[in-house]
Amino acid sequence: MSREQAIQRAERYFDEGGFEADLARRVAIPTESQNPERAESLRRYLCSELQPNFERIGFRCRVLENPAAIGGPLLLAERIEDPALVTVFSYGHGDVIRGQETQWRAGLDPWALTREGDRLYGRGTADNKGQHTINLAAVEAALATRGRLGFNLKVLIETGEEIGSPGLREICAQHREAMKADVLIASDGPRLSPGRPTIFLGSRGALNMDLVVDLRAGGHHSGNWGGLLANPGIILAHGLATITGPKGEIGVPEWRPQSLTPSVRAALADCVVDGGAGGPQVDAGWGEPGLTPAERVFGWSSFEVLAFSCGNPDKPVNAIPPRASAHVQLRYVVGVDPAEIVPALQRHLERHGFGMVKVSAARDGFFAATRLDPEHPWVRWAAESLRRTSGQKPAILPNLGGSLPNDIFAEGLGLPTVWVPHSYASCSQHAPNEHLLAPVARDALRLMAGLMWDLGEAAALPPA
Fold it and tell me: 48: closest CA among 24, 26, 79?
């Protein structure tokens, strides 16, 4: 009975096909939370797929009905060995975005796991079925080796993360006592680079907004009225140009965070952004000057224009359009007040003479920014566990560049949050041809088996 035996058991699970078999079964359940017709699939994923797996290894399970008008059920699985032991809370989501079946490359199907070389293709392989499959298998490897976990574990699996986690905040508040724990350890998102174990401690916030210039009731002939009528597309383009500099530098003062602290910069000092083979290259000189690429994506705000519409792009006509709109997004870190994002932009546009550009928050796309201090004892503990297994220092990111409902756990449940991601930045999540790298999955199984083993060594844990 040893740590190495637990790790070897996890390796055999991968090498002998157990991981691919479990993941294939889970990918085959089309859990599209954006598709109302998939409600039965969301429930089936929890009740018929995950719940029997948890119960087989001694977890007590409850299905929690979602109080929100949209969003599927949640599964709470817990194994309490001794209330005096450290209690770990974990999280995953069983839902995926739309399959986009017609857009996948020939030979690939979003609902069938397909292995090509080192890539495991299928919807949810990276986000998030593959990741919670790894963690569940690591728990089982440690449990089977030791005969007990040596700690208490509560796992919450939701089915609405891809639509903004409706109901999750209310569920966690309602069941706060049942979800009481000492630390969150969970997995989602990408590693900094495929070959380097990574820890992130929170997430950037995200707020999507609509910018609209609506000038008149209809279009007017550009020959008769050109030069006389204001063009909403030109107005909106110039308004957008005030929001950032020509290389993406944030121009709205309230969006510029003051939280790039010495401890955050120190944590990012050895972090190199790497999307892996086939990933895009970082554009030199883009973004906030004076910051490293890692600081720009993990320690700063970024503004993106996601869509711009004026007239009929597919069938343009010789008429001045009456209306132009843009769908935009701000990714922001701790230090930016989310309640001020929209008002600050409206004030900024008015100061620059573009008060006719009206700003509103979009209904989709809001997550709050969170961050745990990189010097927190649980961070040091987790980093040492990963280093012990991998033989290399893990990357420690103060927060993920993307967004998660981490504020519900960090603030609502009051937990220090430690995320150990198992994907990589070029995995095509939310796009056709989503995939998980097989070598990263195998490595992650080793890392998490070692971490689950170490959680059972009470003397090595930070104080509760």
Answer: 26
